[in-house]
Design goal:
By secondary structure, the chain is of the alpha+beta class. 28% of the residues lie in helices and 16% in strands. It has one domain. Strand 4 and strand 5 form a beta hairpin. 26% of the residues are buried.
Length: 119
């Protein structure tokens, strides 16, 4: 059964994939000096783990990726409006979230001071 839970962040109601995008976008807005490596340390790839298994992307399990390095476009938020500019380069955020690994991300968001409400 597909998990269709909704979340509320920053006044916006979203599904799992979109909530991750919006939190990363807000973090970059609040930390404009952050480079890609800092963003990867803040949102490490292992947030997307579900037990020991990797997620589905042929790009490998990851939360963010440089746009130019994406080979599996359906696994990332690729619309131009969804891409995040980070110090002159475009960054994209994974869409690959499930009921188990979204909790890892939400816990990290809380640790960073973001409030997410499950609807």
């Amino acid at each position: 059964m597909r998990d269709l839970r909704r979340y509320k962040f920053n006044g916006q109601e979203c599904g799992k994939g979109r909530i991750v995008l919006e939190v990363v976008r807000k973090y970059v807005e609040q930390h404009p000096e952050a480079g890609f490596e800092e963003l990867k340390r803040t949102f490490p790839d292992d947030l997307q783990k579900t037990g020991a298994a990797a997620q589905f992307s042929t790009d490998g399990q990851c939360v963010i990726k440089r746009r130019k390095d994406v080979t599996d476009e359906k696994r990332f938020h690729m619309n131009k409006k969804d891409q995040i500019e980070l110090m002159g380069e475009q960054v994209v955020v994974s869409r690959e979230w499930n009921i188990n690994n979204i909790q890892n991300f939400i816990t990290k968001a809380y640790d960073l001071g973001f409030e997410i409400e499950m609807l």
